[in-house]
Amino acid sequence: MTESLKALIEACRQGKADYQDLMDRVPYARFLGIELRVQGEELTFVLPKNPENIGNPTLPALHGGAVAGFMEQAAIIFILLEMGEPKVPKTIDFTIDYLRAGLFRDTFAECRITRLGRRIANVHISAWQKRREEPITIARAHFLLSEENN
Amino acid sequence: MTDSKIPYTRMDVCNRSLETVKHSRNLGMEVLSAEEEGVRVRLPWREDLVGNPDTGVLHGGAIFAMMDQAGGMANSCRLYPNFEITPTIDFRVDHLHAPTPGKAVVCHATCYRLTEHVTFVRLTTWEEGKEEGEPVATALATYTRMKIDKNGRVVS
Question: Who has greater pLDDT, B117 or B154?
């Protein structure tokens, strides 16, 4: 991990930098338009409704891939902030269940780390639109926590 | 199952779905081939699809989105000449190794089982030009079949 990224994570934790800056470092996160809301130490990820992310123009519905990418990126940022000594999380696998159509509206996601090991993290991600209790998708992913850059 | 009386090919069906799906178009996806046994789709390497700005490696989410779309096209190829909407039920992708920054990736998706309500799809993605070698990602997915009438309304 580069020193500049480590410094940014530390600054976010101390409230000296905006979490959004951490998100916006990632080109694909900007491509989707992912935002972040912080309440105390709780993070909610937001995929604001955006015509560029539409998959089904008739409904209209969001592209399942955009929702999945949003959830994967949410998990990556979440892990980065949870680790004492941050390492770069690399996706090993990502499994998603689509429960409801992702309508053309804002989508929210929250993450829960099931286990944070030395080398592997297991994360559960849930995304919703109307209410948190009615997720549109749930996902489970494993990440390799790597010392290296690549 | 080639019927010269059908005025459109599997390639037409796949290109049509790319035209209508804005997000897939935005990803820069391209259909390379579309046969009964499956579809081959390309995702370019692009700076705005990068997941790690320190290395330039494509984001797993971009690869996922391309593969999910390819799976839908594999369904269309299998269902041809009929047309159905096939929303994803579940999708699991394994990222076997990172593709080289700057290199496009190519996905082959095949619907290997079709039932009355569900399709089963297998997908493999390679770095472009290395299709004989180790894949960068493999995936398994299921989709549900939504039959539609001539007016585009869901029948069942």
Answer: B117
